[in-house]
């Protein structure tokens, strides 16, 4: 009897790990394929089309760095990374300058308006880029910003500000009100109370907002595709799929290396903060 | 002596505090509006006005070349409505969104449930499962393009290796209309599932443990607990997950654009990619805007659901 129940229990673990394993393989496979392609020699990459006994999932010939070398020396990849950093930094600064005061204000100052305005601002996060890129293209050309990184700096906060404001509003709400009131009783002005008492307690929240804004800039594709056409002004998300393909020739090794080096660090960074994003996002739905 | 001075100090302190508190609400509200203004301005000027401009453009003959345009009423809308490519794109948008979100919610519920069981290695598994959502879609879609390659598709190689595809049989993933659509749906599901899983996990963990335990003590069966306790409590969270999934999937053009550019023969266009092709590449802003505006009902629905969920949780709090 005991042996049977032990076997049943063991089988349950096997089933659990099997199910989890299938999901993990599906989730991770494209990344594994990027990794493998980035370092495979060309003959190892393409021989499978003619040689049917070729095993595609492993290195059949020793790995090579030639694709990576081509990527960094023969393509504008480094320029794209640099452009992405510049746009990302500018957008993060604008977002914080606007969203920090707004988030605090919604959490503390504007009373019963806070909730409604907060939801109102958050709803604009749902207005998709695909509805706005046409009017923006008009705005951008009226301002003379076509094919300029400034167009992206202007437009990206339209999606970073709403979410970040919502996120920071939740953070400020979670800090006990008494702390600021105590500071004001001790003679601080409200602004001094915010700077000296609230800000040190919201470092985690502000950091989350920064990561969020930056990773979103890194991931954005539609506006970049609409506004930027010169290869040397592209961000990494645009340059890799659009400009690494020369005519009909795909340098798959370099292409996958480019995708790997840009996407995995961002994916790791974003995943580490995912819980906070989800908590911020669903705050309205689960707080009851 | 000292006691009296102390009490006098306390009294004046209290009086000063009281007068300060009396004015504080007014000043706080003023300060609040000042701090809120930049955000409101940004949102109104760069989301609100462009939105109105999109509607205006959809009634006009605007082109990307010049800034002047004339109004043509509903002509753009009637033109696109009679256009077979648009009809296909509208159908595709509904199909992509419907099928992929159904798959996402079913698979994500299984995933979320698996991940609530404590097992060794759960943290790393959770982290790995999140990667598809967090990676930039333009870059991961390139990996998929390579996976679906017409000559070097690893899926085909694998199927052949296991004998599913015989010699001479070959699937042209992105070159055949039905397969291309399936390919796009697979990428959407792959990408959206982690997000839904985490939202559902947040929901599952918010169900109070004592409610579950009480139900077990009362002898409620597993399915009864799932249907009568978990589901109703999870509903607002599921609504949020589905809502975001629908909004992100139906309005996304990046996967379609990167995988097929709407081809073969315009068979995989969605509204967003068609709007991009006509409006930006074809420079016909009016028609592009008209096509994009067909996404508006989705947004309206999203807004209504969001407000409902928010209001309900306010009542509950």
Automatic annotation (TrEMBL), chain A:
Limits of the ABC transmembrane type-1 domain: 81-273
Keywords, in A-Z order: Cell membrane, Membrane, Transmembrane, Transmembrane helix, Transport
Gene3D superfamilies tied to this protein: MetI-like (1.10.3720.10)
Protein's cellular compartments: Cell membrane
Superkingdom of origin organism: Bacteria
Membrane topology reported for the UniProt record: Multi-pass membrane protein
Pfam families linked to this entry: BPD_transp_1
PROSITE patterns reported for this sequence: ABC_TM1
Transmembrane segments: 12-35, 80-105, 117-137, 149-172, 193-217, 249-273
Record-linked InterPro entries: BP-dep_ABC_trans_perm, MetI-like, MetI-like_sf
Record family assignment: Belongs to the binding-protein-dependent transport system permease family.
Cited PANTHER family: INNER MEMBRANE ABC TRANSPORTER PERMEASE PROTEIN YCJP, MALTOSE TRANSPORT SYSTEM PERMEASE-RELATED
Protein name in the entry: Carbohydrate ABC transporter permease
Automatic annotation (TrEMBL), chain B:
Top-rank taxon: Bacteria
Subcellular compartments: Cell membrane
Topology within the bilayer: Multi-pass membrane protein
CDD domains: TM_PBP2
Keyword Transmembrane helix: yes
UniProt cross-references to SUPFAM superfamilies, sorted A to Z: MetI-like
ABC transmembrane type-1 domain mapped to chain residues: 90-306
Pfam family, one: BPD_transp_1
InterPro entries: MetI-like (IPR000515), MetI-like_sf (IPR035906)
Keywords, comma-separated and alphabetical: Cell membrane, Membrane, Transmembrane, Transmembrane helix, Transport
Positions of transmembrane segments: 30-59, 94-115, 127-147, 170-190, 233-259, 289-310
Main location: membrane
PANTHER family the UniProt entry points to: BLR7065 PROTEIN (PTHR43005), SPERMIDINE_PUTRESCINE TRANSPORT SYSTEM PERMEASE PROTEIN (PTHR43005:SF1)
Family assignment from sequence similarity: Belongs to the binding-protein-dependent transport system permease family.
Protein name per UniProt: Sugar ABC transporter permease
Organism: Geochorda subterranea
């Amino acid at each position: 009897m005991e042996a049977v129940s032990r076997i049943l229990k063991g089988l349950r673990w096997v089933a659990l790990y099997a199910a989890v394993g299938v999901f993990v393989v599906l989730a991770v496979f494209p990344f594994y394929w990027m990794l493998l392609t980035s370092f495979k020699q060309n003959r190892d990459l393409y021989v499978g089309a003619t040689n049917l006994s070729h095993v595609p999932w492993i290195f059949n010939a020793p790995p090579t760095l030639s694709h990576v070398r081509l990527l960094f020396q023969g393509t504008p990849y480094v320029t794209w990374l640099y452009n992405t950093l510049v746009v990302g930094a500018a957008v993060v600064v604008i977002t914080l300058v606007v969203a920090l005061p707004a988030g605090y204000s919604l959490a503390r100052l504007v009373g019963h308006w806070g909730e409604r305005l907060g939801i109102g601002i958050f709803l604009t996060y749902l207005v998709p880029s695909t509805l706005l890129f046409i009017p923006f293209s008009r705005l951008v050309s009226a301002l003379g910003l076509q094919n300029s990184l400034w167009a992206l700096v202007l437009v990206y906060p339209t999606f970073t500000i709403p979410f970040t404001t919502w996120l920071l509003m939740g953070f400020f709400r979670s800090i006990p009100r008494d702390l600021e009131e105590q500071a004001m009783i001790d003679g601080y002005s409200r602004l001094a109370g915010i700077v000296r008492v609230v800000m040190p307690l919201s470092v985690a929240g502000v950091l989350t907002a920064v990561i969020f804004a930056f990773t979103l800039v890194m991931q954005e594709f539609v506006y970049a595709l609409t506004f930027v056409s010169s290869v040397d002004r592209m961000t990494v998300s645009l340059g890799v799929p659009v400009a690494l393909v020369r005519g009909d020739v795909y340098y798959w090794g370099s292409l996958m290396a480019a995708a790997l080096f840009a996407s995995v660090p961002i994916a790791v960074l974003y995943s580490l903060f995912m819980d906070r994003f989800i908590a911020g996002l669903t705050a309205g739905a689960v707080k009851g | 002596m000292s006691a009296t001075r102390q009490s006098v100090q306390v009294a004046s302190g209290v009086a000063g505090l009281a007068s300060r508190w009396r004015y504080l609400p007014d000043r706080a509200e003023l300060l609040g509006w000042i701090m809120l203004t930049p955000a409101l301005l940004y949102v109104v000027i760069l989301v609100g006005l462009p939105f109105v401009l999109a509607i205006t453009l959809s009634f006009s003959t605007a082109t990307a070349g010049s800034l002047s345009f004339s109004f043509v009423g509903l002509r753009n809308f009637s033109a696109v409505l009679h256009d077979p490519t648009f009809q296909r794109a509208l159908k595709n948008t509904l199909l992509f969104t419907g099928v992929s979100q159904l798959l996402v919610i079913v698979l994500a519920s299984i995933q979320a449930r698996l991940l609530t069981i404590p097992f060794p290695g759960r943290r790393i598994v959770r982290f790995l499962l999140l990667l598809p959502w967090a990676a930039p879609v333009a870059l991961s879609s390139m990996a998929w393009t390579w996976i679906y390659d017409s000559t070097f598709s690893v899926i085909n190689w694998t199927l052949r290796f296991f004998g599913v595809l015989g010699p001479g049989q070959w699937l042209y993933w992105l070159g055949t209309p039905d397969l291309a659509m399936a390919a796009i749906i697979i990428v959407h599901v792959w990408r959206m599932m982690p997000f839904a899983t985490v939202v559902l996990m947040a929901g599952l963990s918010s169900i109070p443990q004592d409610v579950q335990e009480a139900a077990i003590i009362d002898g409620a069966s597993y399915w009864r607990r799932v249907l009568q306790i978990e589901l109703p409590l999870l509903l607002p969270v599921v609504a949020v997950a589905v809502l975001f999934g629908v909004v992100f999937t139906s309005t996304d053009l990046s996967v379609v654009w990167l995988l097929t550019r709407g081809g073969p023969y315009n068979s995989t266009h969605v509204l967003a990619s068609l709007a991009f092709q006509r409006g930006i590449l074809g420079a016909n802003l009016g028609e592009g805007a008209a096509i994009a505006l067909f996404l508006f009902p989705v947004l309206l629905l999203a807004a209504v659901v969001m407000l409902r969920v928010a209001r309900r949780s306010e009542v509950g709090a």
